[in-house]
Amino acid sequence: MARPRKFDEDEVVGTALRQFSETGYHGTSVEDLSRVTGLSKGSLYGAFGDKEALFHRVFDAYCSAAGAHVAARVEGPEDEALQRLRDWLRSSEDRPGQLACLLAKGTAELASEDEVVAARSLATFEMLFDSCRRLVEQAQRAGHVDPDADPAVLGQLVVTTHRGLEALARGGVDTSTLNRIADAAIDAIATPVRPRSSS
């Protein structure tokens, strides 16, 4: 009878996520993973399979969390939808450093050679597009975005801006500059507030 495992798989996945985020897939060895998780190679292989299988699980977990984080912003009053999009672009929690780039890093490093990563990456971006489209539609109904604009395209624009801001953050651009860019992006899709005419 096999002995029960004496470690938390989710905790190991979280630790491996931090390692892959820091050094990438190719830059991370099984020895690195064994060192940071405290598990022997045999235990890692027994629980997760090889390095590729572990990365797939880590990448899937990260992508699920990233998609759920944005999907949660769809919930709320429609007249606050545009502000929720602004907050997503401005929020430092979405750009805490290296962890924020695992989707971009994994996609850039592996999508051309790993069908699993390519498919999961595309599915995640589609989820982000959909959530942002729904937020734009809410803002349109609230009168904050031109109702004739294409909400799908504007949602994709917001996601693309977010990806760009993450890259700039990794490059050392200061937070105030990042937030000015975020504000400019949202202001660009917002319907100008017309002053009330006096009567």
Automatic annotation (TrEMBL):
The keyword Cytoplasm does not apply. Residues 6-66 form the HTH tetR-type domain. It holds the Pfam family TetR_N. One of its GO terms (molecular function) is DNA binding. Keywords: DNA-binding, Transcription, Transcription regulation. InterPro entries: DNA-bd_HTH_TetR-type_CS, Homeodomain-like_sf, HTH_TetR, Tet_transcr_reg_TetR-rel_C_sf, TetR_C. Gene3D superfamilies: Homeodomain-like, Tetracycline Repressor, domain 2. The keyword Transcription applies. Residues 29-48 bind DNA. This is DNA-binding transcriptional regulator, AcrR family. It comes from Microlunatus flavus.
